Amino acid sequence: MNRQFKRHQAREEKRAAATEHVRRADREDLVRGRKRTKPREFFKEVRQELRKVAWPSRREVASYTIVVLVSTAVLTALVFGMDFIFQKLIIGIFG
Questions:
Q1: In the structure, what pLDDT confidence band is assigned to residue 4 with cuts at 50, 70 and 90?
Q2: Distance between CA atoms of 51 and 18, rounded to whole angstroms?
């Protein structure tokens, strides 16, 4: 084993120990009966987070939709064309 491998192994063991510590803490919280968020508070927080979202404009949504539809049509045509060519090639070879 070289030094680099030993260092890597030590880092992995340290990371695994930290992960186990977090898992143990989560289990302890579940055993203790951590309080759940009430539905009203949950939806209030959801609304607050959604206000922070940078929503696209109607024009941006329309342009993104057009890009997706055109690229889907082009890729579909490409796959169809390749399938057709390979089909003719295989039928031509094996007869």
A1: confident
A2: 35
Q: Cα(42)–Cα(60) distance, rounded to whole angstroms?
A: 30
Q: Cβ contacts of residue 1 below 8 Å, gap of 6+?
A: 9
Distance from C-alpha of 80 to C-alpha of 84, rounded to nearest angstrom = 6
Residue type, 30: L
Pair of tokens at residue 81: 């064309």
52: three-class secondary structure by DSSP:
coil
**Tokens linked to 84:** 């057709």
Any residues with CB less than 8 A from the CB of 32 and at least 6 apart, and which? none
Structure tokens at 37: 């968020």
pLDDT at 21: 65
7, two tokens: 């260092």
What is the separation of C-alpha 14 from the centre of its chain, rounded to a whole number of angstroms?
A: 27
Does the global pTM surpass 0.85? no
